[in-house]
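We modelled each protein-ligand pair independently. The example shown here corresponds to the zinc ion entry; the chain sequence is given first, followed by the ligand as SMILES.
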Amino acid sequence: MTELLVRGRIVTPAGTLPRGWVAIDGGRIAAVGGEREPPPAADAVDDHGEALVLPGVVDGQTHATSWRGLDGIADTTRAAVAGGVTTLVDMPYDSPLPMDRPQRLAAKVAAIGAQAHADMALHATVTAETGTAHVDELVADGVAAFKVSSFESSPTRFPRIPADLVLALAEALARSGLPLGLHNEDQEIVLARTAEARAAGRDGILAHSRARPLAAELAATGQLLALGQATGAHVHPVHLSHAEGLRLVDAFARMGVRATGETCVHYLWFDAARDGPGLGARMKVNPPIRAGAVEALWREVADGRAAFTSSDHSSWPLEGKLTPSIFDAGAGVPGVQTLLPAFYTAAAARGLDAARLAAAQLAERPARFFGLADRKGAIRSGADADLAVLEEGSFVWDEARALDGLAWSPFNGRIFTARVAASYLRGRLAWDGGQVAARQGWGRYLPRGAGGWFAAPAGG
Ligand SMILES: [Zn+2]
């Protein structure tokens, strides 16, 4: 007798099973079947009819703790399960100080255990203060990746790391194979172009976009790739806003460099020229959303040249964005709750197999990337029973429904062609389409496991 049977259109790595089923026992997937295979007897059945059942989303880039510190975990993970995101891979730029040493990792792991509604893996970083002294210990403690920045967003919380320290980190990480992520913007170019724009009295979201030109993004991306080429480290620009960046990564990958690149869902939706006048600072992110970049970026994603797509969810309140000048507005947008419906909608609108592409870009690939594929990322026997149920239709996104404690969204008023009707975390209903059933403390810290992007995925 299995504990729970979830029925629906089951999206597996091998294909979609109409009127299929997932049998769940002890928080794990015990078996998966299609309509011709009789399911085991079950204590309970959740029948989602024609709805799609996808693997729970693994959001590879969130900033849950950059505004309210570790207390941001509760709200961010509540919003996550309502968006079908059952695993978050959180960034290291915690308020007030970044996660660059084992004591801070221990505090964050404890906060996850106490507050999280979803599972979390973690990025670590290095600072000028620590250098690479703690890298091996952080790796041993299970961090999933490292991230640094070539641009100084904050001298303490989110500092610029000079090239010599990035090189030392790349050398240290080449031994373990962990990815080295980069916030990829060249500091000198951005500071100079921003000063020029301010001096000339230019303002507004298009001025922001132009003050951080593609050249700044490609220059920083290229330098990271070269450090990967020299060291053998897995190097990974974490937000490529334009197809040219993914082409640059691909060129290095073809040379045998362990290089991957990532994009974020807002780059796949918004256009600075078309949407900037309406959204203004509500779409301010770094690197910026550009004009005329969306369709070429979609071709890169559809062809598999983006390792995965993330939300880059930033826990900033709207007040911090509505400054008189765009250059003083906080960068970053909330997105953990809209990642799956927004990605699905935009993929379907382009005639792509949106369910398959969402399962790959939002679950399978990030799980493999962060060494979580032994537990997460796919609907298959033995994996954690993390599921996201998508109901197709026409749904206007109302930012008031956001559960992240911020209640604003660049997607406000946009129509999504799918909504998250339920999510399950390790076999337990976490979101029923209207209410969050998950509680603080359900979520667990996920240490990186075996496998990775450049090794055979563990657990097949
Ligand atoms: Zn980010």
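The first strand starts at residue 2 and ends at 12.
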